[in-house]
Amino acid sequence: MAHFSDLQLNADILATLARLEYKEPTPIQEQSIPHILAGKDFLGIAQTGTGKTAAFSLPILQKLQEEPGKWNNVLPKALILVPTRELAIQTLANLKQYGKHTALKFLAIFGGVNENPQLRELKKGVDILIATPGRLMDFYFRKQISLKGVRFCVLDEVDRMLDMGFEPNVRKIMGALPKSYQTLLFSATLPKEIEKLVGEFLKDPVTVKVTPPAQTAGTIQQSLFFIPKGQKQEMLEHVLKDSACDRAIVFSRTKFGADRIGRHLRKACIDNCVLHGDKSQKERQKALDHFREGDVRVLVATDVAARGLDVSRITHVINFDLPEEPESYVHRIGRTGRSGCAGEAYSFCDVSEKPLLRAIEKKIQERIPVVSARKFWPDFEPKETHQNSKTGKVTQRSKAGK
Ligand code: AMP
Would you say the CB of residue 337 lies under 6 angstroms from ligand 1? Predict the structure, then answer.
């Protein structure tokens, strides 16, 4: 078993990790921290849940703490670029924990909120800046921020950043950094565009690939329920009323679908929060806080909104719809079964989604065990859905003719 004390971390950081009850380093931490401390560029193929945030934060904190005279004292010395505000907020929260023993100043800047408080904080001086590309570019082009002092640049969830169209901004930001800095790049996948970025911006990087905990931990029990579209909502209500379902995320493919699921659940007296990209920053934060603090036990979310979300002790992930991208399935179910806790991942699949199911099973290289809906809904009878071609009206008919 590896120990944090073998990774050249200093006593302050070791004490912090002990306080956080991190008993041993995760594989990505074990394989990155000594190299990052030694000044190497790093490429980590890893997703949320692998412990990647500590993998890059701990060595940066240690270097900034140990060599204070080496850095420019007002300008940001480390820049952590992230795709979404949720990830920015979460990374900031992690850094505050990991760097509690230091006097370093951390700030997260992201869009969708008033920029003045962020600008005020920037003026006071920041050591580690977490930023989404859009807001950072705004500030940079208006000369409200200087990147001249940056010595460490972390690009986190780069695949997500490119999916969201941030590549031009990322390139501009990288172009604005001073000549010698250390780059740490993390991505769940390594498509061609990212390989290209790596070739351009990383110098002889140490590369480490870790399998997501979803595939290694074996603590996630996957189940597949064949449910006609028109009966998914009722099935969901049966599942959520099960006493084992303590804290659940329900995934919907669309924002509209997420709102509808949330509305129907409320009608069925199942309290829930809905998280998707059309919600304001304030609404999203409120939803997340309620869910995190356990005020509501059901969060309905779209993929983009839930990416990077770090909420502990999620007992159930429910795929109300199967995702279009097989990769998203892995991300979705990775929300549960964390830190050694067991988790359930239920997927509802209707006839039209069978091609998506096949793509997912190909991706994860296993068959998801099929479970009867009667496990939760004892008198379940599948009903065929008919759509009247003239009126468009959807009606249901029991297969047994009832
Ligand atoms: P991340 O992949 O950075 O989002 O981390 C996922 C979760 O694992 C976070 O809740 C961390 O607090 C937690 N974590 C990170 N490293 C460790 C560790 N070595 N031991 C236990 N938990 C950890």
Answer: no
Q: Are residues 193 and 278 in the same domain?
A: no
Which of 26, 47, 156 has the most ligand 1 atoms within 8 A of CB, as the residue to mutate? Answer: 26
Three-state SS for 197?
Answer: helix
Beta bridge partners of 43: 185, 207
Q: Does the C-beta of 26 come closer than 6 Å to ligand 1?
A: yes
Q: Same structural domain for residues 173 and 244? A: no
Same domain, 60 and 196: yes
Ligand 1 contact, 50 CB (< 6 A): yes
Atom 20 in ligand 1: residue holding the nearest Cα: 22
* The pLDDT of residue 214 is above 60: no
Instruction: Decide if 214 contacts 333 (C-beta within 8 A).
Output: yes
Residue 370: how many other CB atoms lie within 10 Å = 11
User: 105-147: per-residue pLDDT in tens?
Assistant: 999 999 988 999 999 999 999 999 999 999 999 999 999 999 9
Quick check: CB of 45 below 6 Å from ligand 1?
A: no
Structure confidence at residue 254 (pLDDT): 92
In a domain, 94, yes or no: yes
Give φ, ψ of 91 to 5 degrees: -65, -40
Domain that holds residue 39: 4-209
